[in-house]
Amino acid sequence: MPTLGQNQYGKAETRVVRIVRDGAVHHIKDLNVSVALSGDMDEVHLSGSNANVLPTDTTKNTVYAFAKEHGIASPEQFGILLARHFVTGQDAIHTARIRIEEYGWERIETAGAARHSFVRTGQETRTAQITFDGERWEVISGLTGLTVLNSTDSEFWGFVKDEYTTLPEVRDRVLATDVHARWRYGWCSDGDGDGDDGGEPAPDWERGYAGARDDLLAAFAETYSLSLQQTLYQMGARVIENRPAIDEIRLSLPNKHHFLVDLEPFGLKNDNEVYFAADRPYGLIEATILRDGVRPRIATD
Ligand SMILES: O=c1[nH]c(=O)c2[nH]c(=O)[nH]c2[nH]1
Predict the structure, then answer these.
(1) Distance from the CA of 25 to the center of ligand 1, in angstroms?
(2) Residue 43: phi, psi to the nearest 5?
(3) Which of 125, 137, 161, 227 would bridge with 165, disulfide CB 3.0–4.6 Å?
(4) Residue of 26, 116, 180, 257 marked active site
(5) 183 and 248 in contact (C-beta within 8 Å)?
(6) Among the atoms of ligand 1, which is closest to the Cα of residue 225?
């Protein structure tokens, strides 16, 4: 009979978001936790007996319950708690390997922002598309991967309900999205590319980018949201109002759902603290916002 070699099992990539609400100031911890357990697991492989198997589903639940009970001080400390729990709690489990990725969030610091708005660090990409037909320029600038989250001031209710609707109405939810924005400058020149011979100096691209990015963040943070659609319009409108050089902006916003984890089975109350951050499927909300009288030119795909 072939020999069973090293083996391990557990739930991979449990996405847990823990929000601590210190009055109006909120703090966020966002982890991706993978549990791998090993020990006396010959029987489950060889005879199919599950007598030593703590289900992977239980390891996932433990991550959520521990996030509530112990909080998340650091990934190391959280991983130590989990590993100790599995190894000391189950005779058959001899080794627990806990891998954790922590995603960083910075507070959005704009004049009008509350203390519950965050932007994820280090993922953003700046984009530019330049088209020239010998006469006219079209410059579309943008960004992708600007991930933002409001831990309150978001509701969703009053929507259409048909025979397939199960979504409960909510008066307080997490609103998170990866901003994908493209904005088109009104600027065009007469063709030699120096940007000023047509009488129209080229915009300051650096300031345009920084300004539009600030506007998007500020509007996201400052909007009390009744839907992501409403937040989207506010974000686009802020750019159009504040940046005269920009005529059109196209926003594509995935609704990165955060579902409250039911901790009742473990005797714990989840007071909007522990969330499952789902990656798919996601709502996708898209729209173009235009300066009055301008014709849309940014592709809608
Ligand atoms: O902001 C939202 N807009 C929707 O259209 C929608 N649909 C849904 O299921 N959740 C949400 N949230």
Answers:
(1) 26
(2) -60, -40
(3) 161
(4) 257
(5) yes
(6) 1
